[in-house]
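Sorry to interrupt, but I need a hand with the structure work. Can you supply me with one protein entry, sequence and fold together? No commentary is needed, just the two lines. Leave the record below and I will have a look.
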Amino acid sequence: MSLQSDIESLWERSEDGLTTSDAGTDERATLDEFLDALEAGEVRAAEQDSDGWVANEWVKQGILLNFSLRETQRREYGGVAYHDVLPLRSTGELGERGTRNTPDGTVVRRGAYVGDDAIMMSPSFVNAGAHVGDGTLVDSCDTIGSCAQVGADVKLGANTLIGGVLEPVENTPVIVEEGVSLGAGCRVTSGFVVGHDSVVGENTLLTPRIPVYDLVDEEVVYGHLPPERRAFTRFVESSIGEHDLFDGGAYKPAVVATAVEDRTLEATEREEALR
């Protein structure tokens, strides 16, 4: 049987009542093999096809099984005790691949992939099932959530949050494609896709609930930032409009996207385009 069929069989058994106490040596061997495959980059929680990014449901099932079929254990990291079902990932081979992880708080959980020539500054956290591409910088105070897919040559500014989408298993996780630069304090959540080679200004929130005003294609899109855009937060008039509680009117956040090379768009042009 293949690893995928083994995981899918375990998933069916778990839905029929398989519990932690029932899981034996064979089941745990399958779970360990699965985590090894994730860490080697052989399997991923989401992949890109001709129609865009799609979730690999069986991979997300495998991650969930590693939580439901394991018991919480006392562990240690940096001399401090903690309790979790998964240990931290071994990082012994990272240096051989040109990847740096600084001490004092660079945490990579079991089942996460970190590519070659990447840099992880402390403190930072990469959760199970996440994929960090070659040459990517994970700066201080960054968090990469479970199953998030971060491409090659990405720059994550300090204090950036890349959310994770583990459940439901059919939902695509957060995607940050190759060559993207996210400014300090950015947050990307709820399966949002950041198109390749985009530059996002600091403290920008990218989530499917906030509209992206794409001034290149002159359309409003949700859930993704098209490739090769320069994006930043702007506030537009809210449907609440004027209200006694809001002096000067109510406003809501939006994201404005221009061409990457268009770094000098005047404020008046932006306002006119938004209107």
Summary: The mean pLDDT is 93. Helices lie at 3-15, 25-39, 57-68, 267-274. The longest helix spans residues 25-39. Residues 210-275 form one domain.
